[in-house]
Every structure is written in structure tokens, then in C-alpha cells.
Fold this sequence. Notes:
Layout: H1 7-19, H2 27-31, E1 36-39, E2 44-47, E3 61-62, H3 77-90, H4 95-105, E4 109-118, E5 125-133, E6 138-143, H5 149-160, E7 164-167, E8 172-175, H6 176-200, E9 205-211, H7 213-227, E10 236-241, H8 249-258, E11 262-265
Parallel strand pairs: 6-9, 9-10, 10-11
Antiparallel strand pairs: 1-2, 1-3, 4-5, 5-6, 7-8
The protein binds 2-acetamido-2-deoxy-beta-D-glucopyranose (4 copies).
The site of one 2-acetamido-2-deoxy-beta-D-glucopyranose (NAG) has 4 residues, from loops.
Protein name: Lipase_3 domain-containing protein
GO biological process, one term: lipid metabolic process
Domain Fungal lipase-type: 141-277
Amino acid sequence: MASCVFTAVCFALLGMAAASCGNSATCESCVAQLGCFFNAVTNACQSKGLFNINSSNGTAFVDRAYDCPRPLADYDDDFARNVAYVYAAASNGNVQEIQACLNNRIPGAVVVSQYTVPCDIFKSNCSGYVALNHENETITVVFRGTKGSTQFYYEAINLILYLDKEVPFFGGQVFSYFLNAFQLLWDAGIGEDLEELSILYPYYELQAFGHSLGGSLASLTALAAVKKNYFHSDNVLLYTFGQPRTGDVKYATEHDENVPNSFRIVHAEDLVSQAPLRLGYYQTTAYHHRY
Ligand SMILES: *[C@@H]1O[C@H](CO)[C@@H](O)[C@H](O)[C@H]1NC(C)=O
Ligand SMILES: *[C@@H]1O[C@H](CO)[C@@H](O)[C@H](O)[C@H]1NC(C)=O
Ligand SMILES: *[C@@H]1O[C@H](CO)[C@@H](O)[C@H](O)[C@H]1NC(C)=O
Ligand SMILES: *[C@@H]1O[C@H](CO)[C@@H](O)[C@H](O)[C@H]1NC(C)=O
């Protein structure tokens, strides 16, 4: 559209494009057309009109294939509450406490290792653990949420300033607080544990869980484990709670292609899960995996 210099020509082009919006069969083919958007409320392909590009209703207005409506994979609310949430909550303890918690609620789960590393300039800790359950044939990696106000403010500043970093391995931009913490924990041993366990138990499912910051770390770890070929996409399950937006739309797209069984459970009014803020529809920096 930037090349639209001669107004008359632009009007003609837009007019032609708009005229055919109604013919688009799918949301994807609709948004690929110049001058059209998909209305996700009415399921119609509509013309943006010349001066009335109304993107105020983020749910209804779709102008990007990634945002097109698609079916929700098998979400299991009982599993979210009684398995994923329990694993995530246990991450706040030390190894003995985690094991005691799992013994109570997830019979068969055994903690393999826990890693706690200082992950910012204020030496706030980030922490994660790996557990194994032979009864259910699962390898579970879990990350702790933000702990303490220093870590919260530092993380918030990182997000407010949109300090993200291009990571070719992840296909897009990732917010640097999450990226840094992910890398430190992965290098501290989580990466090696997942590789070894995937070789020992090639048919086990990888489960990745976490709350808040831990949700972002679980999202990055699940994607990394697939990209490193430790686990097959279909054999990875991600459940996060109150996860902030973790990267840009390219990261989110890459994530969904590689970790299709992803569920991000949020409270509608929780600010953390809406950080960093998306200020308008065309801002693509602040995204998270789709569901
Ligand atoms: C955009 O949508 C909002 C809410 O649906 C509506 O109030 C507003 O009038 C619309 N603006 C235009 C220019 O159509
Ligand atoms: C915005 O979209 C939602 C559904 O996605 C719909 O329920 C709501 O009425 C829309 N709001 C406006 C102001 O159009
Ligand atoms: C970080 O973890 C280490 C080891 O578990 C602990 O000794 C230290 O007190 C923790 N630091 C903070 C700021 O919580
Ligand atoms: C283990 O498997 C059983 C039976 O399929 C299921 O009911 C239970 O929720 C699973 N537990 C975990 C921790 O995945």
C-alpha cells in the first residue's frame, strides 16, 4: 500500500479487491486478498473499505492468517486442574517438597532433578524441575513462576520496553528475560536431562507445565525439545497458567506448528497474561501460542 502514490489508481485497485471479498471461501484466502478482512463473528469476508479499517474489536477483526479461527485441540479441564496445575504448584518447593507434593497427588511421579539459577542482574532465581512417571509413561518438565517483587519489576520492565531478541532457532523474536532464563536453565541441565530421558524412553510423552514466567519457559522448552528432535510434535503436551506473551507472531506461529497440543490457561482480567500490551491490531511483537 506504501507504493500507492497515485490516489486514483489506488482507489481503483482497492475497489476491485473489495468487490471480490465476499467470494473468498476461507479466512486464510480472505486475508490474503488486498483490502479484505475476515469477520470472525459473522464468518464473512468483508471489505475494509477505504477509510474505515476498524480493528477495534480484536476478536472480530482478522487480517492475518495466524489469527484465523481454527478448531481447539483436545483440552482436558480435569487434567489441567488435577495434573498440570499440581505439577506447576509443586515447583515452588525444593526436591523433597516437590516429591512430597507429587506423592500426594500424582502417584508414580518421581523427581529426577531440579535446577535453580540466578537469572537476572539482581540475582533473582529461576527454577525448574524434571520428573518421570513410568505408570503414565511421561517425562514432565516444570518451571516456577516469578518469585519476589524485584524479579517481578525487572521482568515487567523488560516487557514494557519490548526488549525482544531475534532467535533463528525459534523462528522469531522472543522477549529477552524469558530467553535468557530459558537458556540458563536449559544449559544448567534441563536440556541434557530431556535428551537422555528421550533416548531412554523414546515413546514417553513430554509434558511441559508452568505458571506465569514458568509458563513462558515451558513454552520455549517444549518448542526447543521438538526442534532438537528429542520429542515428536504429537508427543508433546503444554499446559501453562497465566503465561505472559512470550515472543512475536513469528515465534507463536513456529510454536504452534511444532507444539500443536498447547493450552494457555488465563484469567480474563489478569494483567500478566496480557503483558506485554498489544497496542493495536497491527503490532506483531507481543504474541503467545494460540490456545
Ligand atoms: C469500530 O468499531 C466500534 C466497535 O464495534 C464502533 O463503536 C466504531 O464506531 C467503529 N468505527 C468505525 C469507524 O466504523
Ligand atoms: C467483538 O467480538 C465479540 C466476539 O468475538 C462479540 O461478542 C462482540 O459483540 C464484539 N463487540 C463489538 C463491539 O462488536
Ligand atoms: C537462589 O537459590 C539459591 C540456591 O537454591 C539460594 O541459596 C538463594 O538464597 C536464592 N536466592 C534468592 C534471591 O532467592
Ligand atoms: C495417568 O493415566 C491415567 C489413566 O490414563 C489418568 O487418569 C491420569 O490422569 C494420568 N495421570 C497423569 C499424572 O498424567
